[in-house]
Amino acid sequence: MRPDSENETDPKEHVAEASKHFTEVSESYDSFVRATVPGYEELAKEEKRLISSFLQPNTQPNVLDLGIGSGNTSELVLEWCPSAHIIGYDVSAEILEKAKTKYGR
Question: Model-level pTM greater than 0.70?
Fold first, then answer.
C-alpha cells in the first residue's frame, strides 16, 4: 500500500522503526517484555495451555513463530514437542540471532 496523503506513513517506515526499537532492547529483551506487557506471566501460562491443546506431545510439528523475539513461545513449544521444527521471524536481526543462540538451532 502506498500512502494516500501526507499524514500517512509508508509501512516500511513502521517496520524500520520497530526493527530499530527491538534492536535497541535486544540485550534486555526478556526483562523489557515482562516489564512492558501487562499480565505477561498469565499470558505465558495461557500460551502453554493452548500449545498443549493444539499439539500432540512428543511429535514433530512445523511451527512458524512470527515475531519470535528471544524465543519464549518457541521454548514452550519445544518443552511440549522437543523435536518440533521451528521457523522464527522477527524484524530485528539481533533478536532473531539471540533466539538462535538460545536454542542452538
Answer: yes
